[in-house]
Structure formats: structure tokens, C-alpha cells
Design goal:
Elements: E1 2-7, E2 14-20, E3 25-27, E4 52-55, E5 59-65, H1 66-69, E6 75-80, E7 82-84, E8 88-92, E9 95-99, E10 106-108, E11 112-116
Antiparallel strand pairs: 1-6, 2-5, 2-9, 3-7, 4-5, 8-11, 9-10
């Protein structure tokens, strides 16, 4: 399971979150596979729900509207389930978030490496 949290010190606006997947992983799309639905995970409390989500082959995309939630909401979490499909060592790209109408306001996570071992 991948959990991403967006936190803003200033009131945020309409935000786009893009998390590119490392090769070797696939998203369990909850619209296609029942096992990809995070509703069964009682411990995950997202708070602000995304307006839109996309489960693509190479990335997860979510839009969050902090404006409609009011100025008091400054944190949101999203989650999705992935499955390892290919063993190997892969580059783990950084996730990116940006305000859709103020592109000078953006952030990235750190990148890294991911190793999937066959058993």
C-alpha cells in the first residue's frame, strides 16, 4: 500500500498530486479489481477526499480541492494498493504536488531505488 500525505503551511488551493510508479509495480485499480479498494482498511482515515483519481499504468494521479474544504484544512492523505510484478532493481521516482492555478507552489518527495526479490 502506498500512502501519500500533502501538507500545506499556507492555505492551499486546488492541488494536483502525481506519483509515478517504479517499473516492476502495478496499481490494483479499485474500479477493476475488488482487492484494490482501500475502503476495507479501517485504519486509513483520509480526511479530505480527492475530487478525482486516476489509476494509470505508470502513475497515480489525484486532485484535491482545499478551497472547498475551507482554510482550516491543510492536510490530506491519499492511498492506493500496488502489486509487485517483476523482480529487479528499479528507480523510484519522486512524487510531485502542485497548485493547479499557482504553479510556482509545488513540492516533490525524495526519489530512490526499489528492489523486488523473487521468492
Amino acid at each position: 500500500m502506498v500512502v501519500l500525505t500533502v501538507e500545506s503551511k499556507d492555505p492551499a488551493g486546488r492541488v494536483l498530486l502525481v506519483d509515478r510508479l517504479p517499473a516492476g509495480l502495478e496499481i490494483e485499480n479499485p474500479r477493476l479489481v475488488e482487492g484494490g479498494d482501500i475502503k476495507s482498511l479501517s485504519w486509513f482515515k483520509p480526511g479530505l477526499r480527492p475530487n478525482h483519481t486516476e489509476f494509470r499504468d505508470d502513475r497515480f494521479v489525484a486532485s484535491l480541492d482545499f478551497l472547498s474544504a475551507g482554510n482550516k484544512v491543510r492536510t490530506a492523505s491519499v492511498a492506493y494498493i500496488v502489486r509487485a510484478v517483476t523482480p529487479g532493481k528499479f528507480v523510484h521516482p519522486a512524487a510531485m504536488v502542485e497548485d493547479m492555478y499557482r504553479p510556482e507552489r509545488y513540492a516533490r518527495t525524495g526519489g530512490g531505488m526499489l528492489e523486488i526479490k523473487a521468492e
